[in-house]
Amino acid sequence: MRLLVAAERLGPLGGMERALGVLLPALAARGAQVRVLARTIAAPPSGLDASVISWAEEHAPPDPAAANAVHDAIRAFAPDAALAANVMDAGVVAALRSVPRVVYQVHDHRPFCPNGDRRFPRTGANCTHALGGACVLHALTDGCAYGPRPRTLQLLRRREALRDAIAGADAVAAASRYVAALARRSGIDAARVNEIPMPLPDDAFASPVVETPAGIVAFAGRVVAQKGLLSLVRAIGRIDAARRPRLDVYGDGPELAEATACAGRLDVALTAFGSVDPAAVRDGFDRATVAAVPSLWAEPFGLAGIEAHARGRAVVAYDAGGIDAWLRDGRNGLAVTLGDEAALARALARLLDDDALRTRLATQGRADAERFRLGPAVDALWDLLSGG
C-alpha cells in the first residue's frame, strides 16, 4: 500500500501527535510506503518522509495554493490510500478525494465545533448540540465563535464545508465512542464512522508494575483551562493538610502560572516538570500513587488515562465525553461528576487512604490497558485504509 498521510501536526506533544507518532511507523512496518504532509512539524515520525504544506489553520478560509500543493504531491506519489488526521482545511480534504480511498481521522472537537472545544465561553458548560443552527443561537447567548458578528457566520460556513468534505471520505475513524457519536450527529453517515481508540506502544506498559508509597498525585497533559489542572489543585486543597498529597505536573501551558499560585495559597505542594517526553511521563506515573484526569471539557479520549493504567495506576477523573472509553467507575478508577471539586477531593483521598481499594483498581486498570495495544489499532486502521 502506498499511503499518503495529511496531518495537522507532527511532534511529541498532544494526544493526536503521540498517536500518529506510533501509528505511522507501525503502518510502515506493516508494509505501507508512507509519505507524510503536515501543516506543522516539530519532529517527524522516525524513518518517514515528511514535508510541510502550510494549509489554512482552523479559523482561516481554505488555502487554494495548499490544495494545489496536495494535488501535486498526489500526482508525484500516486498513493493507493490517504489518511487525513484532523486536517482543518476543507480544500485540502477535498483535494485528497482524488486518491482511490480516503480515511479521515477525528481526534478532537474542532472539525465539528466553531469554538474548537465544545465549551460555551460565557459559562464554561459543555455543548451537547450538533454543528449547525444551534451554533448561531449560542453565538448570541453564550459568545460562541466570534459572538454576534458576521464573521461567526463565515466561520460556521467553513466548519460546515469541512464537515461536508469529511462526509465525502470513504471512512471516518473516531478516537472514542463519544467522538463517533458526535460525528454522526453532525451529519457524517453512520455507516462510515468507525471507533479506533488511541493506541499505546509496547514500551508504555509496565512489566512488572512498580509499587510506590502513598502521597503523590500525577497530572499529565497540556496546562490549559480545558484540562482542569486548576480545578485539581483546588480539590487537593480540600484534603486535610495532614494527609494532603503532593501534585506532580507533567506538561506546560498558559494556566500553569495560575495553578502554581493557587497551589501556594492553598498549601498544596506542586512540582512542575514542564513539557517532557513520553518516557519521562511514564517515569512520573511510576513514582505516583494515583493519576488524575480532571478535564473540564468533554474529553475526546484522554490518552493520559490509559497511559496511567498501563503503568499500573488507578485513575480519578471527571466523568465527561470520551473518558468512559477506558474508565469504569469502581472497576479501574473513580469517576466523579464534572466540576464537582469536593467529590474529586473525596475520591482522591479515598484512594490514597485505602491501600486495598487502590491496589484492586490499579490492577484492573493495568489489565484493561491491554485493550489499547498498538497492534489492534494498526489492524483496524489498515482495514479501513485498504477497504477490507
TrEMBL record:
SUPFAM superfamilies from the UniProt entry: UDP-Glycosyltransferase/glycogen phosphorylase
Pfam family, one: Glyco_trans_1_4
Keyword Transferase assigned: yes
Domain (Glycosyltransferase subfamily 4-like N-terminal) ranges: 14-197
Molecular-function annotations in GO: glycosyltransferase activity
Domain of life: Bacteria
Keywords on record: Transferase
Name of this protein: Glycosyl transferase family 1
Organism: Vulcanimicrobium alpinum
Lineage: Bacteria, Bacillati, Vulcanimicrobiota, Vulcanimicrobiia, Vulcanimicrobiales
